[in-house]
Amino acid sequence: MRRQEDRALQARIGHDFADASLLQQALTHRSFGTPHNERLEFLGDSVLSLALSNLLYERFPQLSEGELSRVRSNLVNQQALAELAIGLKLGQVLRLGEGEVKSGGRERPSILADALEALFGAVYLDGGLAPALAWIARLYQPVLVSLNPQTLGKDPKTLLQEWLQGQRLPLPVYRVLQAQGASHAQSFAVECEIAVLGITVPGSGNSRRLAEQEAAKAALQQAQQRQANKKAS
Amino acid sequence: MRRQEDRALQARIGHDFADASLLQQALTHRSFGTPHNERLEFLGDSVLSLALSNLLYERFPQLSEGELSRVRSNLVNQQALAELAIGLKLGQVLRLGEGEVKSGGRERPSILADALEALFGAVYLDGGLAPALAWIARLYQPVLVSLNPQTLGKDPKTLLQEWLQGQRLPLPVYRVLQAQGASHAQSFAVECEIAVLGITVPGSGNSRRLAEQEAAKAALQQAQQRQANKKAS
């Protein structure tokens, strides 16, 4: 049974392990025993980072270093990794301690994300960078395709301004409605108004900037939605 | 002249660039013009991380993931990179804007560290991971050799405790002398006493733990110094 599952996983990864013990180790959570997958995760984290850096560098020649870094960090967060792990049905083949299994460890995002990183490390150790890069490129293909280089890394206020300019409309007005709290724990309530469209939306956050970004994001959604409705009617 | 310098640098790196424009770009600071080295730095940062992860993973099979991460981050900080860049005489071949040159840009740690990372990226793009890994292994060889796997990643309190146990001495006593400030900005003053050696040293920090670590570090230094003196006399 174990063998069959492992073979199916290797098919999904697209790499046949020369050293099957590396695959086993990558799938072993520390609650199960040693050798577990934490050291492989350390390695795999760097493998993933280089693979994505390489993919993003080539795919987005116009993005700056700062924009590339922001995109990369969005792709490697725990939630993103856990979703990919679920797509690979990784939870079902993990070796977990009994307690972890009972408390839902097979669905826990941190365990899934760590195991996926460990698998990146294991593929790298077993076959070098090429198979790891090929697999990661395939895994992230749907995500990379849907990334929009026009909006990547731009904040909502900039996006709203650019969209309005594209429509030859006047710029939005931001107003602070409320600011309270001492300097280390402030909270701001603002609104963003696009008078010509009759749109006024609120936003809040720990800084004026964050509150305005939130309002701008909602305002842009409303404006675009309204335009789509107008076209449809 | 430029050619000669570049050839000398390539000899120090141990890689002949097939695409010389990559080498030029890596050596070009944004103050000089475009294409500059910032996107290569983005890539090179990941190349360095994977190379060091690989080296540390193999060299220290007994270190945990957390310890490996701590060691790696010590090796990739700006100061460490700038020192390596100075060893490569990188500052002399950088292409900087006039203003940067006048204000000492060739010696600025951030510029040197960034350019070195960009060079890692350029070697990777030009020749793949193998030459980058080989070069980074050579660059970090002196540092890696001097790393002590016995003490790596261990905090001062643990090191002090282990040292005392090795000497068959009783454990140290920590005392909080002062704690002040609200929860977000506390400061602690503590002392660490090794009564049997007549050593009492202070420590301070934003948390009790940090204050104790500082005191433990100083106490261990005193204890070891005293022992060395005793042996010498």
From TrEMBL, chains A, B:
PROSITE patterns the UniProt entry points to: DS_RBD (PS50137), RNASE_3_1 (PS00517), RNASE_3_2 (PS50142)
GO BP terms: mRNA processing; regulation of gene expression; rRNA processing; tRNA processing
Coiled coil: none
Broad class of the protein's primary localization: cytoplasm
Segment forming the signal sequence: none
Catalytic residues identified in the record: 45, 117
Broad EC category: hydrolase
Pfam family, one: Ribonucleas_3_3
Cofactor: Mg(2+)
Reactions it catalyzes: Endonucleolytic cleavage to 5'-phosphomonoester
Keyword vocabulary terms for this entry: Cytoplasm, Endonuclease, Hydrolase, Magnesium, Metal-binding, mRNA processing, Nuclease, RNA-binding, rRNA processing, rRNA-binding, tRNA processing
Superkingdom of the source species: Bacteria
Annotated residues for binding of Mg(2+): 41, 114, 117
EC nos: 3.1.26.3
Segments forming domain RNase III: 6-128
Keyword DNA-binding applies: no
Protein location: Cytoplasm
Domain (DRBM) ranges: 155-225
Matching SMART domains: DSRM (SM00358), RIBOc (SM00535)
GO CC annotation, single: cytoplasm
Family the UniProt entry places it in: Belongs to the ribonuclease III family.
Job of this protein: Digests double-stranded RNA. Involved in the processing of primary rRNA transcript to yield the immediate precursors to the large and small rRNAs (23S and 16S). Processes some mRNAs, and tRNAs when they are encoded in the rRNA operon. Processes pre-crRNA and tracrRNA of type II CRISPR loci if present in the organism.
NCBIfam families: RNaseIII (TIGR02191)
Record's subunit section: Homodimer.
Name of the protein this chain belongs to: Ribonuclease 3
Organism, scientific name: Leeia aquatica
Name of the gene encoding the protein in the UniProt record: rnc
